Known about the structure:
The protein is mainly β. It contains 3 helices and 63 strands. A hairpin with a 2-residue loop joins strand 1 and strand 2 (11-14). The termini are far apart.
Amino acid sequence: MKGNTVLSGSEIKVQDRKIKLDERHLYLDCSLTQRQAESSPFLFRDLTELLDSGRLQDGNQENPMTVYLAPGVYWIAEPGDERICTAKPGDKLPYEKKVKCQWLFLEGLSQNPMDVVIAADKGQSHGCIGNYTMFHFEGDGLHLKNLTVGNYCNVDLVYPKDPSQNRKKRTSAVTQAQLGDVEGDCFFAENCRFISRLNLYPFCGAKRSLYDRCHFESTDDALNGNAVYLECDFDFYGGRPLACTQGAGCVFLDCLFRIRGIRAREEADQYFMKGQGTVYLIRCRFVDERDWKEPASKEGRRLSVEWTRYPEASLKCYEYENSFEGVPLCVGTPGKDTVSLKGKDALKAFPIQNLLGGEDGWNPKGQLFPEKEERIPIKLMLDTKEVTLEKGQEAYLEAFEVFFDGTKRKARDVTFRLSGSVAEIRPEGENSCVITGSNNHKTEQRAVLTALTKQGLEAAALIMARPARTQPPAWEQMPWIKYDKGVFRLQYSFRDKEEKDYSLVEWYVRRDGEEILVRESSQGAGDLGYTPVDDDIGGRLLVRVTPKSSSSGYGEPVTAAAQQVITWEQIPKHGHLETDFTAFPKVCQPRLQKGRWINDFYEPVEKGELKEWRKWVTELPSAPWGYGELGNGCKGKGLYPLVQGVKLMYAFRERCSNMRLELVLDPAKTGGQGFGSAGQYLDVCVKLEETLLSGYGLRVMRTARAADAVAAFLVKYEGGIARPISEKVYTSCFITGCHILLEARGEVLTAEMFTEREIPPGKAWERQVRLEEKISPDVRSGFGIFHTGTNGDGGWQNTIMLHRLTVDVTKDG
């Protein structure tokens, strides 16, 4: 390559620089002829050949193992290669290349890192099963300089030095396409470029990492969460570049953030994390480079930047002199999750040598730092993030100062303060305190304990103060049931009218000598009615009330029974079943029986593209589904999966000719992709035989084709195996407020899917779905919901939430 000259097999010249080659100094140049490369054991023309040659040997900090890379594009796998990469036994990820070498130095021989490119173009479901990862390095002291490392699965490779080496991205569907990780300590990248989109993963994992003057392009779950970034610039195509942080956190010094891509209207312009952690922003700049459809709407507006969308009470992040297009910018909420370092001694902790020096004095930048200067901690932490206390109970909390390398010591001169008056603080020593519950209210109250040092560090813990434990409430009127206009109503009362009722109310239908749980709630008086359905006919309704108040434990349960069995005349709407899931029985119920819900875990007979089934699941939860609030696209409360692979099924006792089902749900994903990875799906089925799992359904599936849409298509189930019976329609309507309608009437199966919400403009996919196919008429009476998606960060950020299910059946045409 022009500019680099091979003088001999043991020496090269780069401009005015002569470089000696030997066992510790190798040279890689794709412009060499095969004859030149074979003339010396120190010359190579292919990166994979060099890595596999056995020539790499352990270096040390003073004399690292060095590989010089001439300008060029070095592919570690053939571009467009159809070979499927999978994780090897014992590996957590599917790696393309694994390198074991202590103190390895890869140096590009150009000041422009765009001239030296290490490339691959695979990702999840595109040439790989799992999150494709280019490299795994094992060893301390990995050092990258003047390089671009890019995964061009979702990004075009543009190589200005030689446009003939340009290459189009493998797919437009943004998928997990990772660069590499490090098992070791002391990772250093200077003047490098790290290119991908989802899950950039720029050599994460080292105990200490420094990125100096590097460029990053990514969407979400992308950056190293335990690193120092110095004078780096970032193109954020997604709203959450960090999944979370690890160790002492993530430090950005004098960095530039360009906000690009699309953001949801109801969210901030930029978040840093999807989860929790500690981020430090020191003298950083933000610019907004999004393509505004109405440029005037951008003028004069304030940029909204938050640490995370759902900050916990314990979250503390730090900022100092940041700006948006020249105007001072405060990130997060001061006094809550944001700590300003202005005028505080804690700011002195941010020289590179203090951050990264550790106990061995590692100093990759060679900054001057007085040897006798005591290391300065960067973070304050409490030994717990959450404390629950009853009135009169005590809890001991201790504060620790943390250095960036993760070592910690007992904090010094800590001051504690508490919001609210539901607990009391008693200092003990210079770094600890005792919290005593003093809640005089009838219900649980929350407060935040904050620890502060004189240097300006802060930590926090959530205090949940419960009232003093009382006896279960005493009955004034024992439970009894009456029937009124299609609803069985429960009535009871307690003597104490001030305490809030948290009694457990369980509704059963006793039939054929068995009690079937049909409704349960812990809201006490908030759940006093049950609407019977056809399958209850002939059964007797029971209600078991276990008394509890906001300040008591549970008392002895009391059972009330309806006086007569449920009759046909008492059913307000025949052939109809409806639930909003607020009091849906969440207990695992695997038994197959008509007229009762089957609530169970689910594993497909054929997994198809579900290659990493429950990879991260070590133990199944006690129940398949949970009920409550989540976030992102999931609004309000609803029923949601607690693990990958769950199902709900129900079969009417009477056979039916026709069935119509409507399901309203919210995916947590807001981009329209619905699931964490390609191959994951939701099946909604009708005319289902519950034992053999035969019937019909609509499959909503994330595929490798699209990152902002799902494929919807009709399927026929036979023996638990689903086969497509219609075309695939790609749609962007699988977002908040999604409705799925499925009807089997005679010989026709129809499905519709749409959303109540406005779909953002610019989406290339169908905005609603309608499918229709001929089927064989039958009298099967079951329906089912099968979800195979992973749960994602926090146990919910990839999942769905069910809000309402309505099913109507008839016996004739």
